[in-house]
């Protein structure tokens, strides 16, 4: 009973802090370890948010370029220019890095999740591009990646 | 519930912390918002094998296998003769061992002092199996802290090609550029030296060769804009003794007064700069990820260098020395003795890293000291190993990029329509980038005088495209698609007469033969296939004598040894992967023929025949 009360209290604090930053309330459970409370006191009321889910870090984001054909084409160009194609395959079928045109997604394939993976990098060799690419370009890459295997995919391979 | 939740949060936090660290400080990305960071881009024969030349190190017995290719000359020949053409049909599985890593298993185990040593693909675990006890318990195992980010820097699966043994020491390379020496009895680390960095795309996948008191190693990364090198590390202390780069000024390449190449185009100062535009040699690949061989009499090591970087040849006009080149060096000093460039201005990713086998052959009525080298470019070369003069150069598989090698100049005659260029999709080039053969090594039997080599029969379309150098990411500039070559069989296992440059027999295979060969005194030859067959064929005729279907495709190199029971065994890894086999691994989609650097186009049906595995099979009578 006492434990439950404490948990509710913690969640409440976490939720308040989270709402300040516009993070969805379902994510604040991440702050219920108790560490969050003491940290909250020392970080101006902001809870620690471990960010395995990009939505926790970035908030649930909406790609401004979804369905924008010219941005998708730009994304394809950037995919080659930044050497994404070298690792993930000429048409993102994989190689040094995993395929992006199949159904398996280690870190998820929502706009926010793909955005998070590009920004943060992943430990098996995916570089962190967040500090070197403008957000605008990252969203164009996401827009391109979301078209792989669909009718909208640009620069399809000629067989 | 609460505890579990807190734990997961803690784990998540830990992941974030370590993930940030790994990404930010260890992959060392330096991309800018532009595509080209400033300052980093510019634009049977009566063969008579010599007794000592290709011999085993003095401390290795006939039933042992201490070096990657068994002997210094890498003939992959064993004098064991219990298993013969007459009885091989009785060969059965004796025991198996799972390495627990379902990635491409290239290379082979070693057997020394009744102990078998295995190095796995990343994370490069090492197992020492006690062959004297029932059930083969481990003497020890070693689990290094190989940097996970190195997986993202390895072009063609996270393979290891094995270890070398000498003086109670097992030496192997980690994918993240550490060379490590372990006490063979205890597994304790004797020394560990980091020789390069993944920050700019270097990895290490090759098997070291121990020559006397030196460990010879080199790097991988010709697809990443690295600068290739070969180095010697002191076997006792683990100290770096010398390092020779394969591009750049003579002082870096260790070209000095002893350098006496046979052909004049290699003479003159600083050819490793002058045959490149601007500073492109700094990103010029020419790595050393294949095999090192050694001639104790001449005291020379031999190795080949990879493709020059970048793949798009229009970005690097010139011969691009010393890419796609065979070097002979003094192992004591690293000084270059001679060099021969197999593919000047490589325009197809024809790495020259395949082994140069040390043998003596009767040529022109006299015994010649030669190396025999089956190159990616499709030519089987017989080269005087003291001078670098090419004696024989004939295609051992279908090729159409060249009409032949001029032995007077050493240069291949090129077919203009098969040159590759920026913005042009050059069609039907044979062989494909995977080569008429990749690293999977050949065997030589002094009893038949024949060389036995796996081959690949893939062709390709190759289009040069823009390339931007971003440290730690691929530096390619090519859009490639492969497909089956003439005849439709994508591989063939052949016997080769290196005196006359002629194929003697061939066994066609559905897929490229990506497993190394083993020849024995039982006059049989072993090899594996990507669809999982392990085969024994007659050394004289190529007739299939026995086969066994392994759990996963075979891209490892067969080896043989004597067990403590005095019986002969044959061992091979089963575990699909590598470059051509990548499409069978998790994470590769066969709907993109340009995936895995273009290999998927030619291999899209492989997943119908095999799936990832990680088993070593040991066979006995």
Characteristics:
heterodimer, A: 159 residues, mainly alpha, Cytochrome Bc1 Complex, Chain D, domain 2, 2 domains, 7 helices, globular, B: 621 residues, mainly beta, Methanol Dehydrogenase, Chain A, four-stranded antiparallel sheet, 38 strands, disordered N terminus
In short:
The complex is a heterodimer of chains A (159) and B (621). Chain A is an all-alpha fold. Helices cover 46% and strands 0% of the residues of chain A.
Indicate the CATH topology of chain B.
Answer: Methanol Dehydrogenase, Chain A
Report the β-strand fraction of chain A as a percent range. under 5%
In spatial order, strands of the major sheet of chain B run 1-32-33-34-35
Number of helices of chain B: 4
Give the CATH superfamily of the largest domain in chain A: Cytochrome c-like domain
Overall structural class of chain B, as computed from helix and strand content, comes to mainly beta
Strand content of chain B: 25-35%
- Order of helical and strand elements of chain A: HHHHHHH
- The amount of helix of chain B comes to under 10%
Instruction: Name the CATH architecture of chain B.
Output: 8 Propeller
Summarize the topology.
The complex is a heterodimer of chains A (159) and B (621).
Chain A: H1 2-20, H2 35-42, H3 54-58, H4 69-81, H5 84-88, H6 111-120, H7 135-147
Chain B: H1 2-26, E1 77-78, E2 92-98, E3 110-112, E4 115-119, E5 126-130, E6 138-142, E7 164-166, E8 169-173, E9 178-183, E10 189-194, E11 209-211, E12 214-218, E13 229-234, E14 240-245, H2 250-253, H3 271-274, E15 293-295, E16 300-304, E17 325-329, E18 336-341, E19 357-363, E20 366-374, E21 379-384, E22 390-395, E23 402-405, E24 412-414, E25 425-429, E26 443-445, E27 450-456, E28 458-464, E29 478-484, E30 491-497, E31 502-509, E32 518-520, E33 524-528, E34 533-538, E35 544-549, E36 559-562, E37 568-574, H4 600-603, E38 615-620
Parallel strand pairs in B: 1-32
Antiparallel strand pairs in B: 2-38, 3-4, 4-5, 5-6, 7-8, 8-9, 9-10, 11-12, 12-13, 13-14, 15-16, 16-17, 17-18, 19-20, 20-21, 21-22, 23-24, 25-28, 26-27, 27-30, 28-29, 30-31, 32-33, 33-34, 34-35, 36-37, 37-38
